[in-house]
Design brief:
about 425 residues, alpha/beta, 4-stranded mixed β-sheet, globular
Length: about 425
């Protein structure tokens, strides 16, 4: 079935807007997972309701937790009993569900079958499954190291020390850390590859949330070794931060149109990769201010930039869109692991930005973007929410950008298209 085409709004004047973004998907899903194996019920305040978080809630229900998502402003997670169960989990195309739920399922006394979208079957998870076997879990993946697979638990897991190559995803580490306190010996994770674990802020987020719940976590000086001591995971009553990465396209709107966008409630400090946005947008010539009113980005001349995005890969599609309308070349590096995300993001960005007229070359670990005059054209999103957001950014300054399946933004931002159109309308919409 082909989704309807969405013509990205074109802004005939600079975008001036205040924009509130939904809650963090990464924090919501970590809080859900931790709540499912805590010692008492937890409350998530102002959580994100999206496809990925609904998939996580459903996965944890299948494993045995009670997750009440009736109210939009407060979800209640009652821990799983982790007794005998035969369950099926649909991970969709959610990396957090794919990598956080199996280590929890290994604590059950039954068999949990995992599968997901076709794209999820291509996402790297073999290192996690091998690690779980080393820690004492029974895994049947037909030797493929990918979906579909089953996890058969015995009601407990020995745990211990495990070596893993996590250079493809920080979630391979975080998934083990989240459940590790419930393993008999806890868990020690040693990253073995020379290439660094990407998106280190997401591991810092996992560590901080564990510590907030009373878990003892030790982090090695080189950020290649993590130790979670065995013990209880306390309940939490936690307000979820705004999703700073979902703010990226709106802040980029100010940059590419020479406008001004403010995001209220921007945290002074955060473990989200999106917290790097202010410095990254400054590299493209924007002026940035963070104060008690939030984060304000003001655009001017859009310059090219050379950026290492290893710790902020999810920002790459939107930043590539900014680079495509800059007045000089840009190089985005450190992001080879994006080839294993919702789609091969490097290949997709090269293909789709090129379709609009940009000169894009793939590197071993990134992209070089040399701006050229852009034109409207169809922009495929490959069921990737970040690609849809990138197309929307370019559409503000290039008429006729036709976005396939903008509905894929429901993964993290269900109201994206409506909110984007309202912002653009405030600037005046050209044809």
């Amino acid at each position: 079935m082909t989704s309807a085409i969405w013509e990205a709004p074109y802004a005939s004047s600079p975008v001036i807007a205040d924009v509130r973004v939904p809650a963090s998907k990464s924090m919501t899903n970590r809080a859900l997972a931790l709540g499912s194996i805590a010692t008492a019920p937890s409350t998530l305040r102002r959580p994100l309701r999206s496809r990925d978080t609904e998939l996580m809630a459903a996965a944890l229900r299948a494993i045995g937790a009670a997750v009440d998502t009736t109210a939009d402003d407060a979800w209640i997670v009652t821990p799983a009993t982790l007794g005998a169960t035969a369950a099926a989990v649909d991970v969709g195309n959610a990396g957090t569900v794919l990598r956080f739920a199996p280590p929890i399922a290994a604590l059950t006394a039954g068999t949990v079958a995992f599968d997901g979208d076709e794209a999820a079957r291509r996402r790297p998870v073999g290192e996690l499954l091998t690690a779980l076997r080393t820690l004492g879990a029974e895994i049947d993946d037909a030797g493929e190291g990918r979906l579909p697979f089953t996890v058969t638990g015995r009601g407990t897991l020995p745990g211990g020390e495990v070596a893993i190559d996590a250079s493809s995803s920080s979630q391979l580490v975080s998934g083990l850390l989240v459940a590790g306190a419930r393993y008999d010996q806890g868990v020690t994770v040693q990253h073995t590859a020379a290439r660094a674990v990407p998106n280190q802020p997401h591991i810092a987020m996992t560590v901080a949330m564990l510590r907030d719940r009373g878990v003892t976590v030790e982090v090695g000086e080189s950020a290649t070794r993590w130790r979670v001591s065995p013990g209880p995971i306390g309940p939490a009553d936690e307000a979820i931060e705004p999703d700073l990465s979902s703010a990226a396209p709106f802040l980029a709107a100010a940059v590419v149109t020479g406008g001004r966008v403010r995001v209220p409630d921007w945290p002074r400090t955060s473990t989200q990769p999106g917290a790097l946005l202010p410095k990254l947008l400054e590299r493209f010539g924007a002026t940035v201010a963070v104060d008690d009113d939030g984060l304000t980005v003001t655009g001017g001349r859009v310059t090219g930039a050379d950026l290492d995005l290893r710790d902020a890969g999810e920002l790459t599609p939107v930043l590539a869109a900014v680079a495509a309308v800059a007045d000089g070349p840009s190089t985005l590096t450190g992001i080879d692991y994006l080839r294993g995300h919702e789609t091969d993001r490097l290949a997709a960005l090269s293909r789709e930005l090129g379709r609009l007229g940009a000169d894009v070359a793939e590197l071993a670990d990134g992209l070089t973007i040399r701006p050229k005059p852009l034109r409207g054209a169809r922009f495929a999103t490959y069921d990737d929410h970040r690609l849809a957001m990138a197309a929307a950014v370019i559409g503000l300054v290039v008429p006729g950008v036709l976005v396939e399946n903008v509905e894929t933004t429901a993964k993290t931002f269900p109201a994206f298209a409506a909110q984007w159109s309202a912002m653009a309308a405030g600037a005046g919409v050209g044809s």
